[in-house]
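Hi R.,

As promised on Friday, here is the backbone we talked about, encoded as structure tokens. Could you run it through your design pipeline when you get a chance and send me back a sequence?
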């Protein structure tokens, strides 16, 4: 049985940052993730995708952000159960929890923080004839290594941040980038929309709107796609090497949806006016997995939620200790293994 102070389900950026905030309070964390490595989607799906809204980083690759977070939490020595999915939860008489994975690994903690991002997910695929034939033969639903598109003709379909960001990024790598969207308006950040328009004016991106891909062509490997103008119904064949439809992910909570938590639109409802606790005392939900009025699914917001969750968790674990956090500093502290090391710590003021 693995015992810890805070059991975090999900080792994405929000879960990793929660380790740091808990460590400042000398709370031990253990993380469970179904993926074989820490980092969540940032590490598994788009490690080379640039992120623009992390404070202090005008631009940082998703994989680099994960590396930095892992370095940041190293002094607090979190435990990891990777490649296993949190399957069942049992609440004990003392209010603590036992979480068992699909491989039978048991974890015991007084606090559980669900930071599972979108949960388990699969890409939303376009409804195109013979689509499966070209999967891994010119059709991909995510970009893990952008270098494979160097010198190639790439067509991206989609109107959200991922489609915009990857079109911008690949404009300096691919031989030719075409962005297709069924509307003239995009759902992504205004700055990204303006960058795409600028690159279009510079001849670095072919922008086709309002339009959609209606057919795939090629003998064994994808050779061209048919793009239909949705206003005029005119169809155009575009020669390409790769087609990347970025229509988002279809999320599923998986076994967590059977834990008795209050669910709304495939997300866990929390009390955001206090501490992001769920309807079950002692279970919190932070990051993209939760929902509340005004929720924004940003890594930045997940960091904020993780911080407040840890403050509440401390009070739950140590109900007789009251304090006010003043600031953080760096000094010689004792690691969880008894070793002395330089690590961040919280400076707090005790309240009698």
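Update: got your reply. Pasting your designed sequence below so it's all in one thread:
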């Amino acid at each position: 049985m693995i015992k810890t102070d805070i059991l975090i389900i999900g080792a994405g950026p929000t879960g990793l940052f929660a380790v740091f905030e808990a460590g400042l309070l000398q709370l031990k964390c253990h993380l469970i993730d179904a993926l074989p490595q820490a980092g969540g989607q940032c590490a598994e799906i788009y490690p080379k995708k640039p992120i623009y809204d992390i404070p202090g980083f005008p631009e940082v690759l998703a994989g680099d952000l994960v590396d930095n977070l892992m370095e940041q939490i190293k002094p607090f020595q979190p435990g990891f159960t990777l490649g296993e999915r949190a399957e069942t939860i049992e609440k004990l008489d003392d209010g603590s929890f036992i979480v068992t994975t699909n491989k039978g690994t048991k974890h015991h903690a007084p606090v559980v923080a669900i930071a599972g991002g979108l949960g388990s997910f699969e890409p939303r695929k376009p409804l195109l004839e013979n689509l499966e034939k070209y999967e891994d033969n010119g059709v991909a639903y995510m970009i893990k290594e952008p270098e494979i598109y160097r010198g190639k003709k790439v067509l991206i379909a989609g109107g959200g941040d991922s489609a915009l960001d990857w079109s911008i990024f690949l404009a300096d790598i691919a031989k030719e980038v075409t962005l297709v969207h069924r509307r003239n308006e995009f759902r992504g950040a205004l700055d990204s929309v303006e960058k795409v328009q600028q690159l279009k004016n510079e001849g670095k991106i072919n922008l086709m709107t309002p339009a959609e891909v209606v057919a795939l062509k090629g003998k064994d490997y994808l050779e061209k796609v048919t793009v239909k103008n949705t206003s005029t119904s005119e169809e155009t064949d575009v020669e390409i090497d790769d087609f990347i439809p970025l229509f988002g992910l279809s999320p599923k909570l998986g076994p967590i949806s059977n834990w008795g938590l209050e669910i709304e639109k495939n997300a866990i409802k929390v009390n955001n006016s206090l501490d992001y606790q769920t309807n079950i005392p002692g279970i919190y939900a932070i990051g993209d997995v939760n929902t509340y009025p005004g929720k924004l699914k940003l890594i930045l917001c997940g960091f904020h939620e993780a911080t407040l969750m840890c403050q509440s968790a401390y009070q739950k674990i140590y109900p007789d200790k009251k304090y006010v956090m003043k600031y953080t500093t760096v000094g010689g502290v004792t690691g969880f293994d008894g070793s002395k090391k330089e690590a961040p710590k919280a400076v707090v003021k005790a309240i009698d």
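One thing I noticed while checking it: The chain is about 20% helix and 30% strand.

Thanks again,
M.
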